[in-house]
Design brief:
mainly alpha; MetI-like fold; 2 domains; about 0% strand; globular; MetI-like_sf; transmembrane; Carbohydrate ABC transporter permease; cell membrane; transmembrane helix
Length: about 290
Amino acid sequence: MRATSWTFGDFIIFLVLTGACIITLAPIVHVFSVSLSGSEAVYHSSLMLYPKEPTLQAFRYIFATPTLIRSFGITVTITVAGTLLNLLFTITAAYALSKKYLPGLKVFMLIVVVIMTFNAGIVPNYLNVKAFGMINSLWAMIIPGMVNAFYLILMRNFFMDLPQEIEESARMDGAGELMVVARVVIPLSLPVIATVGLFYGVGHWNEFFKGVFYITDASKWPLQVLLKTIVFDQNFNDLTSADTTNVNIEPANVQAASIMFATVPIVLVYPFLQKYFVKGIVMGAVKG
């Protein structure tokens, strides 16, 4: 086998990709190291690439009261319920729009494209949420933006690429539209469903602005809003009620531990769905 020769262009690409990886991973490694390091080491270090004086003191500090756990549970609830509802409405709408015999198909598609291109803005959205009585309700984090127009088109294009003969065979066996969707379309569309579902889930997990605009009760704050008060406002008063007067801990330790706590759960989901990404996106982008 002949050895592959490197060209100058290959070398430049390698350097660029290596630099991008370093720039991407360095902050993550730093935050992880700070979260597990002692306060003295953090105080005297500007950049940490590995934990110094390893300790779990910062994590014990943030778990001293159930404040962070409560916000974590709220975010999990919003993510799970929101993603399931997102997929339910997106799948049913995409299936209907994938049928060329749907009356008014062009009008519906025009509406979807307009919605994808233009947004009402923050103030009209807030007035709608307030008019429906959803202020300080977790539904304010779920219902607005129930269907993403881009994901809808992506899933519609995927459905259009499915063999129509399979659906016709199911109908000949007496299956109705709902049965065709549940028994035929969904099993064949797992790549795009998993991909879109992950996009929806990550969006709910990282949602910050809706929590700031619609949730004024601190006891209902999602994780990202609580994280903002910890990292930017450095407000630890509501984070723990334990006696920490004799605890020597740097604010950076608490901030880093909180960031890791909020980041790791959603990152762990990626390896299980990664195999669906390329297939789901590429196949969903074939047809217009």
